[in-house]
Amino acid sequence: MAGRKPELDIVLIGGGGHAKVVSEAIFLEGTYSVRGFLDRNKSSGDILCAFGEHQVECLGSDEDESLLELATSAVICIGDNLTRRKIHQKLSKSHPHISYPTILHPTAVVSAGTQIGRGTVVLAGVVINMCAEVGDFCVINTSSSIDHDSLIRDYSFIGPGATICGNVKIGNESFVGAGSVVLQGMEVGEKTLIGAATLIIRSVGAFQVIFGVPGRVQRSRSSSERYI
Fold it and tell me: How confident is the model over 44-79, as pLDDT tens digits?
């Protein structure tokens, strides 16, 4: 990557810890340069992180219409599925000119036979195998794996170190916690939360909260409930 000049600027929506990880993935991959981040809870000029002489600083609030008008490409750096979806839906109406590239950390191993949607972030050490499909605006977090023929639908979150075995289907806006395992052929309904270190040995429905080894339904959850 030495000497390679980034081709396009990108703006990060959100300025928390997840944005730091995403900004590093962008920096290391080298296609984009990070112009800065927008966050209503930070002050203009606040520094998120630095890579050598390059600092990622706050440009202003994500509610500032003038700044959003200037953004041509963005990544929504919000870990919570519900919030990430709402921000995208709002921006798609108010600022339809903004594009959302797929971000792949250079250490991720992604099969050529895999489809990954726009706005999705695939972080360090991830493995995605043949004929898997990952939807739009997903977070595939550090050192997780998605095996062959699995489907991860839009706005979902696969936590650090989680294992999605072959032929698994994860519904829209579902959350698989760190270190969890979903065995081959299982289906997880939409907007379901699977807690950390949970083992899924049978398919589970939508709007559930599941913990344990093996995983058991603890309660139902509402469509407006935050994940993290």
Answer: 999 999 998 889 999 999 999 999 998 999 999 999
In a shared domain, residues 55 and 90: yes
Backbone angles phi, psi at 18, to 5 degrees: -65, -35
Straight-line distance from the first to the last Cα atom of the chain, in angstroms, rounded to the nearest whole number: 35
Number of domains the chain contains: 2
How far apart CA 217 and CA 194 sit, in angstroms, is 9
pLDDT of residue 227: 85
Is 124 buried (19+), middle (13-18) or exposed (0-12) by CB count in 10 A? middle
Is-contact 174 193, C-beta < 8 A? yes
Q: Which CATH number is 153's domain given?
A: 2.160.10.10
Residues linked to residue 219 through DSSP beta bridges, in sequence order: 209
Rounded CA separation 105/69 (Å): 27
Nearest to 17 by CA among 42, 49, 46: 49
- What is each CA distance from 62 to 8, 55, 68, 184, in whole angstroms? 20, 19, 7, 40
